[in-house]
Amino acid sequence: MQLRKSVVGAAALCLVAACGHKPSNPVAISQPGDTALTCQQIESQMTANRHAANTLADLDSDREATNTAAMVASAVVFWPAVFAVDLSNKEQIEMRALQDRNQNLARMHAKKPCPQ
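RESULT FIELD:
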């Protein structure tokens, strides 16, 4: 009977933890209208993407710190704190998509007669 309660409890824990997943929304590497972008527009997008990627890196670092604190609290003080752990890698996925987008924009920039 005790084993059954433990299994049911573990299953419930997994279900609740799965609900905490945050879906990612990565930027598309190529977008409609890319071929019509001017050199200045490409450079502007690349700068904005770098800024957004840096912001996501900071958020990812903050999430890691929060997860560590939640795990310590759950182990030491209050076990339900484990539900505060965010196991998604949303920021990492979105950051990588921005980096890939910038690589694509850099290739487009190199093909155009843009000043270096």
